[in-house]
């Protein structure tokens, strides 16, 4: 099978396919020449370790069993992709479900396409493959986009090229992570659609976001109706602007300094007796981990 035919057969998205092309390198890694980077080889399943950068941690048991049964009957149609760690040790790049199902089907070896990749490429490939799954919800996609931006040091334009989406589409997903956790969970669980969430995110006030969200869920409002409520609310807000709160210059300077340090909008409040609070918001477990690391907690 030529490399050209392989690329057509995989059905990989343009982003992951490009990454695999970038990482291709022909190189013998066994004395016999049986295992070659850039080639497809039969590799013992017990020599393949899972991808430590795999963002997907849960797999549908019923779907896995169905895939295992298909493999028992038809074998592996699409090889997995791995990188070689040593002569008899490999690490999975893509194909976690196929590998797990193959083990269930009783296979002792599996066809694998061998690539060269460093740790950052491994993470990027795993995230992009995860994004290209058809059953991902909007929050899972948004979190994967965020990880690609922060952990793989990509810009939004580069991210769009990697995943085959334009910058506006990528930004629409990323904006969902600004929503309160309750709304993100509802979107993840299918209680509201991305259309509902995209409308609600246009409201600045969290309490008002939650109020419209609860109304939409309780009354089964359509996306168009939610958009109307948001539009009316924003129009009313423009007509009756609230007086701007006066902030102590020193407090404002401290807020700016903390915001720069933590990379997120920090709120500092203090009364005349110097009593107050500091609020450090976060929108995901990954961002919380990053803030805790900065705090050395």
Automatic annotation (TrEMBL):
Keywords: Chromosome partition, DNA-binding. SMART domains: ParB. It comes from the Bacteria. Residues 41-131 form the ParB-like N-terminal domain. Belongs to the ParB family. This is ParB/RepB/Spo0J family partition protein.
């Amino acid at each position: 099978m030529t490399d050209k035919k392989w690329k057509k057969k995989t059905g990989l998205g343009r982003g992951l396919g490009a990454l695999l092309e970038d990482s291709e390198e022909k190189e013998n890694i066994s004395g016999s020449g049986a295992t070659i980077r850039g080639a497809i080889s039969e590799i013992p399943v017990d020599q393949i370790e899972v991808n430590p950068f795999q963002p997907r941690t849960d797999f549908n048991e019923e779907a896995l069993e169905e895939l295992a049964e298909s493999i028992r009957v038809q074998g592996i149609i699409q090889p997995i992709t791995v990188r070689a760690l040593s002569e008899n040790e490999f690490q999975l790049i893509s194909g976690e479900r196929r590998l797990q199902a193959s083990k269930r089907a009783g296979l002792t070896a599996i066809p694998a396409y061998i690539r060269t990749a460093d740790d950052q490429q491994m993470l990027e490939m795993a995230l992009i493959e995860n994004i290209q799954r058809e059953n991902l919800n909007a929050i899972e996609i948004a979190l994967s986009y965020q990880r690609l931006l922060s952990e793989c040091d990509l810009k939004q334009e580069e991210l769009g090229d990697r995943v085959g989406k334009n910058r506006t589409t990528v930004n629409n997903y990323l904006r969902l992570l600004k929503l309160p956790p309750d709304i993100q969970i509802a979107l993840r669980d299918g209680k509201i659609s991305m259309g509902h969430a995209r409308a609600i995110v246009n409201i600045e006030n969290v309490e008002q976001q939650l109020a419209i969200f609860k109304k939409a869920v309780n009354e089964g409002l359509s996306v168009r109706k939610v958009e109307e409520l948001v539009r009316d609310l924003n129009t009313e807000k423009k007509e009756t602007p609230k007086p701007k709160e006066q902030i102590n210059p020193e407090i404002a300077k401290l807020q700016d300094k903390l915001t720069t340090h933590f990379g997120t909008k920090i709120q500092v409040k203090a009364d005349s007796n110097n009593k107050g609070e500091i609020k450090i918001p976060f929108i995901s477990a990954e961002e919380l981990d990053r803030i805790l690391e900065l705090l050395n907690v």
